[in-house]
């Protein structure tokens, strides 16, 4: 059977004159059967046009054929959840988990700053815990994990299901060569649940990680250059076709 990859991104021009820049509004990735292509494409357009971050003036939807033999099937990370009383406590829990995964002294002190740097980015920061360097070829954009979907998912929701999409992305990312852990906070203003994920930790949902209404969010992929080459990791994130089995 042939599959098709669909990718959507939507943005808006903001600012005046020299300050003019593209603000990312929405993005989505799917891998679906031929029959689902048109419906998914239309759902993507509708999702971009109704996003809470704003009204996009640029929407790009790219459709590509994918050979079944090039697709890797992964088992979804096991999910646990951490309930917290406040977003401050949630962030604290997340930093604690990341700190342990990175095995670096005082690393958590750096995390708020790193997280802030991800806020304007469309992709994720790829941070090398061995050298303290950022490895994204384009720091403004970051690296994007692409070509992934849930196995057997034929749904064509024009509304985003944050959890379903995040478990797919986190599972792909956790399986990338040299990946140590991921930290994620949505940039959708009304979505306050975030997560920390890795092969060892699984997918740890942290129920509150920011204030309602806050449009800042981002992702940090913690990578260890002693375990793999950065190029290999980026190649996997950006090119490898992955379907995630969430029913195992
Ligand atoms: N690859 C890399 N980074 C990405 C990608 C991608 N494919 N998609 C988004 N990002 C970055 C980008 O900088 C966004 O600003 C940021 O992550 C947040 O993206 O269990 O919805 O799509 O309920 O807003 C977590 C679900 C939802 C938690 C996360 O992120 C749960 C979410 P968003
Ligand atoms: Mg978002």
Q: What ions, cofactors and ligands are bound?
A: pimeloyl-AMP, magnesium ion
Mean pLDDT: 94
Main-sheet strand order equals 5-10-9-8-11-6
- Could you give the count of β-strands? 12
Order of helices and strands: EEHEEEHHEEHEEEEHE
| Low-confidence runs of at least 5 consecutive residues | none
The value of Rg in angstroms is 18 Å
Helix content: 25-40%
Largest sheet: 6 strands, mixed
* Cα end-to-end separation: 22 Å
- Our count of domains comes out at 2
Oligomer: single chain
Category from helices, strands and their pairing: alpha/beta
Number of helices: 5
What share of the residues does DSSP label as strand, in percent?
25-35%
Shape field: globular
Describe the structure.
The chain is an alpha/beta fold. It has two domains: 70 residues, no CATH class; 172 residues, no CATH class. The chain has five helices and twelve strands. The strands form three sheets. The chain has a six-stranded mixed beta sheet, sandwiched between helices. The longest helix is centred in the middle third of the chain and has 16 residues. The model has no long low-confidence stretch (mean pLDDT 94). The site of magnesium ion (MG) has 3 residues, from loops.
Give the gist of this structure.
The chain is α/β, with parallel strands linked by helices. It is built from 5 helices and 12 strands.
List the topology elements.
Blueprint: E1 3-14, E2 21-33, H1 37-49, E3 58-66, E4 71-75, E5 79-82, H2 87-102, H3 107-118, E6 125-128, E7 148-150, H4 162-174, E8 179-185, E9 194-198, E10 202-206, E11 218-223, H5 230-239, E12 241-245
Parallel strand pairs: 4-12, 5-10, 6-11, 7-12
Antiparallel strand pairs: 1-2, 1-3, 8-9, 8-11, 9-10
Magnesium ion (MG) is lined by residues 186-188.
């Amino acid at each position: 059977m042939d599959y098709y990859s669909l990718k959507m991104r939507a943005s808006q021009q903001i600012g005046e004159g020299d300050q003019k820049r593209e603000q990312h509004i929405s993005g989505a990735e799917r891998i679906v059967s031929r029959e689902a292509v048109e419906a998914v494409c239309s759902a993507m357009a509708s999702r971009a046009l109704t996003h809470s971050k704003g009204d996009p003036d640029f929407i790009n939807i790219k459709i590509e054929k994918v050979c079944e033999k090039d697709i890797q099937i992964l088992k979804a990370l096991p999910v646990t959840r951490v309930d917290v009383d406040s977003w401050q406590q949630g962030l604290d829990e997340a930093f604690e988990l990341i700190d342990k995964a990175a095995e670096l002294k005082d690393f958590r002190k750096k995390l708020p700053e790193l997280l802030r740097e991800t806020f304007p980015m469309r992709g994720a920061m790829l941070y090398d815990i061995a050298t303290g360097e950022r490895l994204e070829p384009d720091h403004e954009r970051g690296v994007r994990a692409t070509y992934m979907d849930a196995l057997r998912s034929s749904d064509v929701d024009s509304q985003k299901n944050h959890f379903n999409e995040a478990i797919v992305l986190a599972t792909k990312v956790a399986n990338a060569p040299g990946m140590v852990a991921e930290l994620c906070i949505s940039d959708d203003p009304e979505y306050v649940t975030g997560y920390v994920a890795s092969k060892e930790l699984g997918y740890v949902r942290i129920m509150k990680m920011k204030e309602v209404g806050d449009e800042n969010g981002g992702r940090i992929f913690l990578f260890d250059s002693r375990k793999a080459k950065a190029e290999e990791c980026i190649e996997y994130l950006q090119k490898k076709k992955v379907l995630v089995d969430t029913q195992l």
